[in-house]
Amino acid sequence: MLSLHGKIVAITGASGGIGEATARLLAQRGATVVLAARRSERIDAIAQDIREEGGRAVTCVVDVTKAQDLHRLVSTTIDQCGRIDVLVNNAGVAPISPLADLGIEGWSAMIDVNLRGMLNGVAAVLPVFREQGSGHLVSIVSVAGLSGVSPSMAVYAATKNAVRTVHEGLRRESTDGVVRTTAISPGYVRTDLADSMADPNIRKQTRKTMDAVGIHPAAVARAVAFAIEQPSDVEIGEINVRPTVQA
After folding, report:
1. Local structure of 76: helix, strand or coil
2. Do the beta carbons of residue 152 and residue 96 sit within 8 Å?
3. Which pTM was predicted?
4. Order of strands, edge to edge, in the sheet holding 32-37?
5. C-beta atoms surrounding 144 within 10 Å
6. Active site residue 156
7. What is the DSSP letter of 66?
8. CA distances from 148 to 132, 144, 159 (A)
9. What's the rounded Cα separation, in Å, for the pair 176 and 98?
10. Tell me: the pLDDT tens digits for 119-166?
11. Which of 50, 155, 177, 231 has the fewest CB atoms in 10 Å of its CB?
């Protein structure tokens, strides 16, 4: 029977939504989880909940746009847990708007968090995976851009598709069996992602759609668990998880 017992998993963006749900589920299934996010009080509270329920959890304050923070996350995980088996790259923002609005600040934020944040994680953890002889990179991507780009989502979709491309590149460079990669693309999920949307109309509509059709973050967490619990000779390259009613 497949199991997560003994796995050491670090998760960025773990202060809420998919990251929190993933931390809670993996801990329930026997993994030791390291929660990383900017909001220290929030990840500390979640970790305390996990420990009170019999799980194992550690926290590390991280801003994924800072390369040194990802290196500190990896070193903290190794110092406190002995190694790092999986890095779940989940931190993301979506200050989407029509290109004509010239929301350059939002474009930069999406590039810095969604793409550069993931690359910072790769730079920090890949040498460790190689030294250990094993490791698994999981990134939460998006269905945005899979079948055409929705209005106002061009830059967001571009960053997510860039992450998908990096994953494929890393997979092709890692056919020696040492490093596994999994890109998980959610559709509408009931999270606070809309809070990062500056345009009030887009934010309102997104929240309305999330409330109407969005799935629970635990659905994505189960996909993460499925991917990382596979034996070392099995790689789950990509999973799309969306509401059954989403086009």
Report:
1. helix
2. yes
3. 0.94
4. 56-61, 32-37, 8-12, 86-89, 135-140, 179-186, 238-241
5. 22
6. yes
7. S
8. 40, 8, 14
9. 43
10. 999 999 999 999 999 999 999 999 987 877 788 889 999 999 999 999
11. 231
Beta bridge partners of 9: 33, 86
Question: Of these residues, 117, 156, 157, 194, which one is catalytic?
Answer: 156
Q: How far apart (Å, rounded) are the C-alpha atoms in residues 224 and 212?
A: 24
Distance CA 35, CA 169 (A): 27
Structural tokens at position 240:
């799309």
> Which amino acid is it at 161?
N
Distance of alpha carbon 58 from alpha carbon 77, whole angstroms: 8
Residue 25 in contact with residue 57, Cβ under 8 Å? no
Dihedral angle sign, alpha carbons of residues 187, 192, 195, 200: positive
Distance CA 21, CA 190 (A): 11
What residue has token string 């991280």? 62
Q: Is-contact 33 90, C-beta < 8 A?
A: no
Rounded CA-CA distance 215/213 in Å is 7
DSSP 210: H
